[in-house]
Amino acid sequence: MRNPKSERIVFSLVLLAALVLLQHCASTPKVERKEVETTIDLSGRWNDVDSRMVSEEMIRDCLDHPWVERFKEKHAGKIPTVVVGLVRNRSHEHINVQTFVKDLERALINSGEVRFVASSDERRQIREERLDMARHASDETMKPPGEEVGADFMLIGTINTIRDEVKGKAVMFYQVNLELIDMSNNIKAWIGEKKIKKLIKRPKMRL
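RE: above sequence
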């Protein structure tokens, strides 16, 4: 004999279990591993692809200009030594400038056209280690001060943005400027510029 009250209780329990299961499934993130080179744009903001693309193109442009050959001619074939200085983020986005600087360093080193010295922060850390080494390391393994290689050129730059937005659409304009400065006389040996424009469309809300 059917018992309507018991059926309603069973139905309610099944429905509750289904809701709990659905909530659990909805709250569990789905994660996929992607190749590092894959382009994935989610918000339209500056991302790893922009950083890598801009650094590689600008360093290629920088090394294609005659300052490298001029330096070699003046210094008996010696390749120039470069250090990356301050790259300022003047955009209205939070951009991790350090990843961009590391992309610049990687592109410079991999070119084989220049030598590269550690940044000021890295040099400070190494000098502290050298002082510690002077107190604690053996004479045979200790590294004496005064043998660092000075940079011939410093690379500095800025990242700027302009944003225009109306009714779910936005245009993001990025402009990256880099300058290579001769450390001996402050002459600018190269000025580079890279621009990126993105059209971002927000999905409309559905009721």
